[in-house]
Amino acid sequence: MGLELYISTAVLAICIGVVIFVIYHNKNIVKRVAALESVIDDLNHQSHKLNKAVKERNFEEDIKKMVEDKVEPLTKSLKEVKKITSEYRGQKSNINDAIEFESRILKLYKEGRNEGEIADILGVSVKQIELILALNNPE
Q: Which is it for the CA torsion 104, 109, 111, 114, positive or negative?
């Protein structure tokens, strides 16, 4: 009875750890998306101001100066957008890999493999397999 309680407590602690990790990971994604939205809003605002200024002025020198003043900030903003987009794609890929990993575990389990066999096939610990199976509640 004591061993079952210890194992149950350990599984619960692992589950709580996984939930905390997922929540923290999602907060990071939300922060990055918010930063991306901010950069895009800034680009739209700068573009609008530039278009308005160009329409108001018909002098070639004024237009050249305004373009020079605006190109550098726009270039920096576009580099930020590219960086954030690249990071987001990397995180999305990691999430897809995790989902694919879980699906593979569940498929092997449904094929009749036990936790030890699945762990050997995938090269991970039995505890990790047990946790994923427990979280997905396979029958």
A: positive
